[in-house]
Amino acid sequence: MGDDGERLQAPGATWDLIVSHELYKRGLVSVSMVSEKLRDKARCNGQGLVFPESAINQAIMQSVASGSDDLL
């Protein structure tokens, strides 16, 4: 947890969260766009790189909403 009570995810857990998301399973998520959206959300929690869980979910939703054709 971050100082603000936000759940933080390490890179491996972030990937697990992305690939277990229902929208990813349906082939609607652009991983490259999620990665781009998360780039400036990374934090260091003293043990390594982490991402706020809300930022991960927001990036997933933005990826779907963009209608990117990178998936074709």
List keywords for this structure.
72 residues, mainly alpha, Recoverin, domain 1, three-stranded antiparallel β-sheet, 50% helix, 11% strand, elongated, Yap1 redox domain protein
Protein architecture, described:
This is Yap1 redox domain protein. α3 crosses α4 (53-66). The protein is 50% helix and 11% strand. It has 4 helices and 3 strands, in the order βαααββα. A 3-stranded antiparallel β-sheet has the order 1-3-2. The chain has one domain (8-66): Recoverin, domain 1, CATH 1.10.238.100. The model has no long low-confidence stretch (mean pLDDT 89). With 72 residues, the protein is mainly alpha-helical.
Strand tally is: 3
Shape verdict: elongated
- As for the number of domains, it is 1
Radius of gyration: 12 Å
Which runs of at least 5 residues are low in confidence (pLDDT < 50)? none
- Quote the distance from N terminus to C terminus: 37 Å
Mean pLDDT: 89
Major β-sheet, in short? 3 strands, antiparallel
Approximately how much helix is present in the residues? 40-55%
CATH class: Mainly Alpha
CATH homologous superfamily heading: YAP1 redox domain. Chain B
| CATH topology heading | Recoverin, domain 1
Query: What is the H/E string?
Result: EHHHEEH
Q: What proportion of the residues form beta strands (DSSP E)?
A: 5-15%
What oligomeric state best describes the polypeptide chains here?
single chain
CATH architecture assignment name:
Orthogonal Bundle
Q: Decide which structural class fits the backbone.
A: mainly alpha
The largest beta-sheet arranges its strands as: 1-3-2
Protein name: Yap1 redox domain protein
